[in-house]
């Protein structure tokens, strides 16, 4: 029988190294020195009796077994965090620390309307926010870096549960010179692929815009170069093409001081669902559902 087991700290170091691919950055993420992290991984290798990481001056390369053990270590760490969360959730709900990722096509338009009231009503809740693309947010969720995500669905985010907060209509944005000929609603087949400007890969709004058009050829013909909705707005304003904007961004004034005109798109997939998502079987599910109801109620009151 094995007398000694890996420590959670050793597993944390291993997972951080695989995530960052660099000893220095991994050490920074764990708030330790590089020598401490390196020593912890060597202790883990000694304990397991096998090499997990090949070290060279330029490259950190995991062995095949190292990759498998790092994946298992990540699951062990998530279970340990869930254990602590289970104890915390047994007390007063929505108190203490809560880490949430919010995607860029939601954060600047929704949070200013919701957070002041949430802070006033739940002063003991310490909500730590990070803004990142949809794919990065889902990765952070499943790696345990955040507890929940404010996301736009549908989006393939892995094994999750969610609570839909509201529906957000999609509109097509045109430069001013196109305003005179526009119908009340835009038919997808009237959009030229070469005119359509979309966000880069990793943003779910790109997929929602393409789904709204339901034209596979747009995926290869559209220009995917915008890093943010504000960038796309400036490109449209300067006559470089058209784009798709969510109604919440329009309502929040993203088109202020521009001459851009918008029309709703007429499609079976003309909206995205704004939802709070969390890992399936999370022990904090009741808390997340409660938070979802609060966010939904506050949005309706602010609308």
TrEMBL record:
One GO CC annotation, please? protein-DNA complex
Q: Which SUPFAM superfamilies match?
A: Periplasmic binding protein-like II, Winged helix' DNA-binding domain
Alphabetized, the UniProt keywords read:
DNA-binding, Transcription, Transcription regulation
Q: Which Pfam families does the UniProt record give? A: HTH_1 (PF00126), LysR_substrate (PF03466)
Q: Which CDD domains match?
A: PBP2_OxyR (cd08411)
Q: Which residues form the HTH lysR-type domain?
A: 6-63
Q: Which GO terms describe its molecular function?
A: DNA binding; DNA-binding transcription factor activity
- Superkingdom of origin: Bacteria
**Family as reported in the entry's similarity comment:** Belongs to the LysR transcriptional regulatory family.
List the protein's name: Hydrogen peroxide-inducible genes activator
């Amino acid at each position: 029988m094995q007398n000694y087991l890996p420590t959670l700290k050793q597993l944390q170091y291993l997972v951080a190294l695989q995530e960052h691919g660099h000893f220095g950055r991994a050490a920074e993420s764990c708030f330790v020195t590089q020598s401490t992290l390196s020593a912890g991984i060597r202790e883990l290798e000694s304990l397991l009796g096998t090499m997990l990481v090949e070290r060279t001056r330029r490259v950190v390369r995991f062995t095949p077994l190292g990759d498998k053990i790092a994946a298992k270590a990540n699951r062990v760490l998530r279970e340990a965090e869930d254990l602590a969360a289970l104890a915390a959730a047994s007390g007063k709900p929505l108190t203490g620390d809560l880490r949430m990722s919010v995607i860029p096509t939601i954060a600047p338009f929704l949070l200013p309307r919701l957070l002041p009231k949430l802070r006033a009503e739940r002063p003991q809740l310490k909500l730590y926010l990070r803004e990142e693309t949809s794919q990065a947010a889902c990765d952070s969720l499943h790696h345990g870096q955040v507890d929940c995500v404010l996301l736009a669905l549908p989006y393939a985010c892995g094994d999750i549960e969610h609570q839909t907060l509201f529906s957000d209509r999609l509109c097509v944005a045109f430069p001013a010179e196109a305003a005179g000929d526009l119908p009340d609603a835009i038919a997808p087949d009237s959009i030229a692929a070469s005119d359509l400007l979309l966000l880069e890969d990793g943003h779910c709004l790109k997929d929602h815009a393409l789904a709204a058009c339901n034209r596979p050829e747009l995926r290869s013909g559209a220009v995917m170069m915008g890093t943010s909705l504000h960038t796309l707005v400036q490109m449209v304003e300067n006559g470089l093409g058209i784009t798709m904007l969510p109604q919440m961004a329009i309502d929040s004034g993203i088109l202020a001081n521009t001459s851009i005109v918008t029309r709703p798109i007429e499609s079976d997939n003309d909206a995205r669902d704004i939802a709070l998502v969390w890992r399936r079987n999370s022990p904090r599910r009741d808390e997340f559902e409660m938070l979802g109801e609060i966010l939904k109620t506050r949005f309706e009151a602010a609308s």
